[in-house]
Design a protein that fits this description.
Layout (H helix, E strand, L loop, with lengths): L4 E7 L7 H5 L2 E6 L2 E7 L13 H10 L19 E2 L4 E2 L11 H6 L11 H4 L1 H4 L5 E4 L11 E4 L15 E6 L11 E2 L2 E2 L13 E4 L17 E4 L6 E4 L59 E4 L2 E4 L34 E4 L6 E3 L4 E9 L13 E5 L11 E3 L10 E8 L3 E10 L7 E9 L4 E4 L5 E3 L4 E8 L16 E6 L13 E3 L6 E3 L4 E8 L3 E4 L1 E5 L9 E2 L3 E4 L4 E4 L12 E3 L4 E8 L12 E6 L11 E3 L7 E3 L4 E8 L3 E4 L1 E5 L7 E2 L3 E4 L4 E4 L6 E3 L4 E8 L12 E6 L12 E2 L7 E3 L4 E7 L4 E4 L1 E5 L10 E2 L3 E4 L4 E4 L6 E3 L4 E8 L12 E6 L11 E2 L5 E3 L4 E8 L3 E10 L7 E9 L4 E4 L6 E3 L6 E6 L12 E14 L3 E3 L7 E3 L4 E4 L1 E3 L3 E10 L7 E2 ...
Parallel strand pairs: 1-3, 17-23, 25-34, 36-45, 47-56, 58-65, 67-76, 78-87, 89-96
Antiparallel strand pairs: 1-8, 2-3, 4-5, 6-7, 9-10, 11-12, 12-13, 14-15, 16-18, 18-21, 19-22, 20-21, 22-23, 24-26, 26-30, 27-29, 27-32, 28-30, 31-34, 32-33, 35-37, 37-41, 38-40, 38-43, 39-41, 42-45, 43-44, 46-48, 48-52, 49-51, 49-54, 50-52, 53-56, 54-55, 57-59, 59-63, 60-62, 60-64, 61-63, 64-65, ...
Length: 1300
């Protein structure tokens, strides 16, 4: 059998003397195979106000180990060991701290752990009426090893602090006898010896299974055996009454106590005889042994302890000496305990270092007087109990010498190989005749070699408390060793700064309230509660032993990630402290930028989500940066954040003097970030003249030429600072311009550029017909810029020039003649009448619009000068915005004359649209529409043309475009033409399959202009079934149904723009067979022009199936009307099971017609006939009635319910149901038992009644209970009496006397 445990409760002493309680634990209750007791705390060790912990309870119980019963730690095999810890297992009857000791209170008869009625049974006898608290050992499973308590008699159910009186529980191993060992007498095991729990911790072995009662008389044949199995004497009641109030039973010297009686009551030894070690020096008094008994006695503490059994050792060891001879016969009694000697040790239970020998002195003592039994010479062995905590003590190494006792004593040397918090040793003799010694607890110390973390927190937020737990352990550095509970280490926590932990590096660590950065280890352990000042990717906390006798190496706690909460977008700085490596970039140069979600300290929030978008602000100068690209344009400028960051590889397509980038986030709570100003250079390719250089100058006249270094896009390379030289090319004619001079220094035509530009101040020293100046790159660089040449310059003298006699008209119509008269004059404006040369006129290139077309003079474009004057009659063949005429003197010595700009207009005949018309556009999205009034040559007529308006037309079957507006406004559909141009931004309000916009003038003088066909798309707002789809309310299983679903906008027009994916599903709970299996093809389909077609098939019947279409992206759905799916019935089924029914009682039998799957054929409306099969027994149940409606009935919706009743009783009736058309198989409802009621009892003689029978010849009469129909009531269990009567002469029955 399993060992039984004895429990104790620990009670603080207060003002009560502890001695009796230390020796005698007070009984509370027994439940679950355990007895519960109370033991008081030793006031010499613990004050009344000290907090009760598990250690206090354990130590108190161990101090009581020499009381009755002994207290010792439980083992892990204990059936009620609720808690396990690294130290040891603790037995407790409770699972947690919610009303501790609840189970014990309930076993005592209390309604709860705080029931006031428990006062009398728990505490009042110990501590008066003030009550107290019971505390339970919780197996070191709670914070600070705290025990849990409950005040039985107080109003509070929980009392975490201890003051006054308190109690707690602890567990004990059982003694030898309580473990159920049996002993033999005369070679036989005595029967009926069943140990049960008794007050005082003993056990009883009873014959005949009787239960002892204090004060009751017991006959000599029913003897009770009280066994106190802690080394006390074993007593047995032989005569009289049993007194269980004494710890040692009823062994009372010279008196039987109050209320006792018996022939031996006043004998010196009373009615009992005692077992003890035979002491020959003591002579028993006369008259002790009653007649027929052979016994001895011994004086134990001046009390008589007698026994009348042979003294036996452990089972099978044989008699250890006859004490009482043959006083008790075999078969009468059972258990015997130890002989009364136990192992003891007065060696202090102190701490010892591991691998260091220590001495334990063990002696054998009488339990009666604690004196050493010098007769003992047993061999003593020692073993280490399991558990103990820390390293559990490792291996116990024991010196083998001196293991045999001499005169009851032995000295043993041993050592532990590992540390231990509370190790216990068990000393016992080899033969098992002595009560073992439980020695402990022993704390085995070790020397710590390094720190080890017992916590594992590696993540936290800024401001959160990080709990770090360390302990000093032995063994190789980095290994998980045993705790050095005596470690003198003083440990300081520091934040590692080199290298730091990234992000914000944690900034600093500060201790939480109640904690500190520097702490002395307590029992080899320490706990730090720290906070980080800022974020960190992988911060490392360093723990250093700062004690004077520093013995532990520095410990690096695993990296901790400290997260933060972002408030703005920031930029990851470079080594130079800037967001971008340099604020000066080159066109198309890729530079990486890491943007991040930052807190107020600039640390990244790695948990931030959303996207970051980078945009280039307008302006910036030069080329304005052109277009901003990410990874050459292959990536978007909006990227999702990963770990709170997004990396962009940016570049500019053009140069910029001061570009500004701005970063924003989809998370609107994050403040945007503005980059530092970026200057973007370009790589110069060409020298370019950027100002208008005169084509005619006078000798000595200074003119400016601005030369830039520009790229292929025309952007100035402001970073270019090379040298450029100006050179006058030869063969310019006339005087070839003489010498080209720069106004600042005649000898320096080579100039250093600054910011990619230089302005030359040039002049000629002589005349020239066509002088050409070339600018070339003369830098030392191998890659030279392409040179640039100025157009030919005519250099004249101040004595001759050309001029027009009259100003030309401001506006000239195309093909309209106008006169231009040219005069040759001197510096004073006088005509040189001697000049008879020729003058030619031509139109310069360009001019815009139609560029003037062809310049026409019917007499030719060259004239002879007549007295210095030449007249031209000219016309332009096309319109021109700014045309120039160039007059050239044949001599080449007179500067050219350029006249202009001349505006040549033309009357418009039509309107044309110059902007491309979009083929597809969304509703309410505008687009540019530019219209020009042009002539037959498509040249613009810039003269005012009045008011024009726009309108639209539509075709197709998907909307008419709705309302046409201009930039969302309907009031700007009319405009007054300006400079021959009209500009709108029209938009449609609704869908349209084919819309066109027409522009026309109110005067209808110009041919209207019409756009190409435009398809206007809209956004899906609902799903609907196509009107061309016919969806029935009833269909058959397996019949396919085609459904077209339309995606339409709010106006009901098809949303033909962005397609949506529509899925179909059958909703549950359609009834009958739920339509399953349901198939749809395809399951998901994308709309084409706003439509999607599906084919639905129901594989099973359904009462009301509902199909739902939905688009998961928009959340739109469409539910079709419920549809009934019919099937074909294959069988009739009976839906009820009738076993027994009384005769004449109506009962319902529902029927259904179902298909192969059990689904109802709701369309079946046939007729079914019910027939009662013959041969049911008893009355055969006839007739079968259907509530008067007939047995052939027509089904409705595949259902019909009969309401039957039977006319007579029946043992096993069967009803058969058959289809009238015989298309469905027949079904039966069988084995129906029809009961009846008794109407009368009939008698029949058996065998057949005879006219006369002889006296003494037996005959039988059968009595049968029948109903009105004569059917047997087989359920009648009544008794029947038979009375024999005689038929008298007069025909009257005369009872025969004496018969019944």
């Amino acid at each position: 059998m399993s060992p039984l445990s004895v429990w104790c409760a620990v009670v603080s002493l207060g003002a009560v003397s502890p001695q009796s309680f230390l020796e005698q634990p007070q009984f509370l209750a027994t439940h679950g195979g355990y007895s519960f007791y109370k033991v008081w705390i030793n006031p010499a060790k613990y004050s009344a106000n000290q907090v009760i912990t598990d250690d206090v309870i354990a130590t108190t119980c161990l101090d009581a180990s020499r009381g009755t019963p002994p207290m010792a730690p439980c083992q892990s095999s204990s059936p009620v060991c609720k808690y396990f810890s690294d130290v040891q297992c603790k037995a407790t009857s409770e699972e947690g701290c919610d009303q501790p000791m609840l189970s014990t209170a309930l076993a005592m008869g209390c309604s709860s752990a705080i029931d006031p009625t428990c006062r009398q049974r728990t505490l009042s006898s110990l501590v008066g009426t003030n009550g107290g608290c019971l505390w339970a050992d919780m197996g070191n499973a709670w914070a600070n090893n705290g025990a849990c308590g409950n005040c039985y008699c107080d109003s509070n159910a929980w009392n975490p602090t201890v003051g006054g009186t308190s109690q707690a529980t602890c567990a004990s191993l059982m003694s030898f006898c309580q473990q159920g060992r049996l002993y033999t007498v005369n070679g036989m095991i005595w029967p009926n010896c069943n140990p049960t729990a008794l007050p005082g911790g003993g056990s009883s072995c009873l014959t005949g299974g009787a239960t002892p009662t204090p004060g009751a008389n017991w006959p000599q044949t029913q003897m009770e055996h009280w066994a106190f199995c802690v080394g006390r004497a074993v007593c047995k009641c032989v005569h009289g009454k049993c007194d269980i109030s004494s710890e040692l039973g009823n062994c009372i010297l010279g008196s039987c106590g109050p209320g006792w009686s018996g022939p031996l009551c006043n004998q010196p030894c009373g009615p009992t005889y005692c077992l003890g070690r035979n002491d020959p020096s003591v002579t028993p008094p006369s008259g002790v042994i009653p007649s027929g008994y052979n016994g001895v006695w011994t004086n134990i503490q001046n009390q008589c302890h007698c026994e009348c059994l042979p003294q036996y050792g452990p089972s099978g060891a044989g008699p250890q000496g006859t004490i009482c001879g043959t006083c008790i016969q075999p078969g009468q009694l059972g258990c015997v305990a130890y002989t009364g000697t136990y192992l003891s040790s007065l060696t202090p239970k102190d701490s010892v270092p591991k691998n260091t020998q220590f001495v334990v002195n063990v002696d054998a003592r009488f339990v009666q007087n604690d004196q050493i039994d010098t007769s003992i010479s047993e061999i003593i062995t020692v073993s280490k109990n399991p558990g103990g905590g820390n390293g559990d003590g490792g291996d116990l190494k024991v010196s083998t010498q001196n293991s045999q006792m001499m005169q009851g004593q032995v000295t043993m040397m041993m050592e532990f190989s590992e540390a231990c918090d509370a190790c216990y040793l068990t000393f016992k003799d080899v033969k098992g005749v002595l009560q073992p010694l439980l020695f402990g607890p022993i704390r085995v110390t070790t020397t710590g070699t390094h720190l080890m973390a017992t916590s594992s927190q590696t993540t936290a937020s800024v401001g959160d408390t990080v709990i770090v737990k360390l302990m000093a352990v032995d063994g190789p550095v980095g290994s998980a060793g045993n705790v050095d509970v005596t470690s003198p280490a003083v440990v300081t926590a520091k934040l590692q700064t080199v290298p730091n932990g990234g992000n914000g590096g944690g900034c600093s660590i500060t201790p939480d309230s109640g904690s500190a950065l520097t702490q002395a280890l307590s029992s080899g352990q320490g706990e730090w509660r720290l906070k980080f000042g800022c974020a960190c990717d992988a911060c490392v906390i360093i723990f250093e032993d700062s004690a004077v006798t520093r013995t532990l190496p520095t410990f690096f706690y695993p990296p901790i990630k400290v997260s933060t909460s972002a408030s703005a977008i920031g930029c990851l700085k470079t080594a130079g402290g800037e967001c971008v490596a340099t604020s000066i970039k080159t066109r198309l140069e890729v530079f990486s930028v890491i943007l991040q979600a930052e807190d107020s300290q600039g640390n990244v929030d790695s948990n931030a989500k959303g996207t970051i978008t980078v945009a280039l602000q307008s302006g910036g100068g030069n080329g304005g940066g052109g277009q901003l690209l990410n990874a050459g344009g292959s990536k978007s400028l909006s990227l999702p954040m990963v770990d709170g960051k997004a990396q962009f590889d940016l570049s500019f397509t053009e140069a910029c003097d001061a570009c500004i980038l701005v970063a924003t986030s989809s998370d609107t709570s994050l403040q945007s970030y503005t980059f530092p100003v970026i200057k973007v250079y370009t790589e110069a390719l060409n020298l370019v003249v950027t100002n208008i250089v005169p084509t005619q100058v006078i000798v000595g006249q200074t003119f400016e030429v601005v030369v830039d270094a520009r790229d292929s896009q025309g952007n100035r390379d402001t970073n270019w600072n090379g040298k450029v030289g100006a050179t006058l090319l030869p063969n310019g004619g006339n005087g070839n311009g003489g010498v080209l001079m720069n106004s600042d220094n005649a000898n320096s035509l080579v100039k250093q550029f600054a910011n990619g530009t230089y302005t030359f101040q040039l002049k000629f020293t002589a005349s020239c017909t066509a002088c050409i100046i070339e600018f070339t790159d003369v830098s030392a660089s191998n890659q030279r810029l392409n040179p640039i040449q100025l157009p030919a310059i005519f250099v004249g003298t101040q004595s001759a020039r050309m001029m027009l006699k009259d100003k030309l008209r401001d506006n000239i119509q195309k093909n309209q003649n106008f006169v231009a008269t040219v005069q040759i004059v001197d510096a004073m404006g006088n005509i040189d009448v001697t000049d008879t040369s020729t003058v030619a006129v031509s139109k310069q290139l360009g001019g815009g619009n139609g560029n003037g077309g062809v310049l026409i003079d019917t007499l030719g474009l060259t004239r002879d000068l007549v007295k210095g004057v030449a007249t031209f009659t000219l016309s332009f063949s096309m319109a021109c915005d700014a045309c120039y005429l160039e007059f050239v003197h044949a001599s080449g010595s007179i500067p050219k004359l350029v006249v202009g700009p001349i505006v040549v207009s033309s009357l418009a005949t039509k309107l044309i649209i110059t902007t491309p018309t979009p083929q597809t556009i969304r509703a309410n999205q505008d687009f540019p529409l530019t219209i020009l009034a042009v002539d037959s040559d498509n040249n613009i007529d810039r003269t005012p043309r009045g008011t024009f308006s726009i309108s639209h037309t539509s075709s197709g079957n998907n909307g008419d475009g709705g309302q046409l507006t201009n930039s969302g406004s309907s009031v700007n559909l009319k405009q007054v033409m300006s400079n021959g141009t009209l500009t709108w931004r029209p938009q449609f309000s609704a869908a349209c399959q084919a819309c066109q916009i027409t522009v026309r003038g109110e005067d209808n003088l110009l041919q209207p202009a019409t756009t190409d066909t435009i398809t206007v798309t809209t956004t899906v707002t609902q799903l609907q079934v196509s009107p061309l789809t016919t969806f029935p309310s009833v269909t058959d299983v397996g019949q396919p149904l085609d459904v077209t679903v339309l995606a339409v906008d709010s106006n009901g027009n098809l949303a033909t723009g962005v397609p949506v994916s529509i899925s179909a599903s059958l909703q549950p709970n359609g009834g009958n067979g739920d339509g399953q299996p349901f198939t749809v093809s395809p399951v998901t389909k994308q709309t084409v022009n706003g439509q999607a077609g599906f084919r639905l098939t129901f594989g099973g019947a359904c009462t009301a199936c509902v199909v739902k279409f939905f688009d998961s992206s928009t959340g739109l759905s469409l539910t079709l009307p419920a549809i009934e799916v019919r099937t074909t019935g294959r069988a009739i089924v009976v839906l009820s099971s009738i076993q027994t029914v009384p005769r004449g009682t109506v009962f319902a039998v529902p029927l259904q017609v179902v298909d192969d799957k059990g689904n109802i054929d709701t369309s079946w409306a046939g007729r079914v006939t019910a027939t009662l099969r013959p041969g049911g027994g008893n009355g055969d149940g006839v007739p079968l009635d259907n509530s008067g409606l007939g047995l052939t009935q027509m089904f409705t919706g595949g259902n019909y319910t009969y309401h039957f009743s039977f006319g007579q009783a029946c043992d096993a009736c069967t009803i058969e149901f058959s289809d009238v058309t015989v298309s469905l198989p027949t079904v039966t409802l069988a084995n129906i038992r029809v009961t009846t009621s008794t109407d009368r009892v009939v008698l029949k003689q058996y065998p057949v009644q005879q006219a006369a029978t002889a006296r003494g010849v037996p005959f039988s009469v059968i009595a049968t209970a029948v109903d009105v129909n004569g059917n047997v009531n087989k359920d009648d269990k009544s008794e029947v009496g038979v009375q024999l009567k005689e038929v008298g002469p007069s025909g009257v029955d005369v009872p025969i006397q004496g018969l019944s």
